Amino acid sequence: MTPAAQIPAARTYLPGVDLERVTFEQAKGWRCVLCAEPLTADRPLGVFTAERGLLTDPTELWACAPPCR
Predict the structure, then answer these.
(1) pLDDT tens for residues 24-66?
(2) 3-class SS of residue 27
(3) Across the chain, how many H-helices and E-strands are there?
(4) CA distances (Å), 12 to each of 15, 31, 40, 47, 65, in order?
C-alpha cells in the first residue's frame, strides 16, 4: 500500500493581504489576491485560511503571472 498524498498545511499570513477581506472573486481565482485585477495568466500563492471571512476553509489563492508586485 502506498502512503496517502501529503496536503500542505494552510497558512494564515500573506504579506500585504488581509485574508479576512478577500473577495469572492479573489477566493475563486478570478481576480488577483494581491492587486485585484482580473487574472488572465496566474500563479499559485499557496493554501490559506483565516479566522473570519470567506477563507475559513483552506483555500488556494492565485496572483498575476508575471508578478504584479
Answers:
(1) 999 999 999 999 999 999 999 999 999 999 999 999 999 999 9
(2) helix
(3) 1, 2
(4) 10, 20, 26, 9, 22
**C-alpha–C-alpha distance, residues 5 and 55, integer Å:** 23
Q: Tell me how far apart the alpha carbons of residues 16 and 14 are, in angstroms, rounded to a whole number.
A: 6
State how far the Cα of 42 lies from the Cα of 68, in Å rounded to an integer.
Answer: 10
Any idea which residue has 493554501 for its cell? 47
pTM confidence score = 0.81
CA pair distance 62, 26, nearest whole angstrom: 8
| Whole-number Å distance between alpha carbons of 41 and 52 | 28
Nearest CA to 56 out of 10, 14, 15, 2 is that of 10
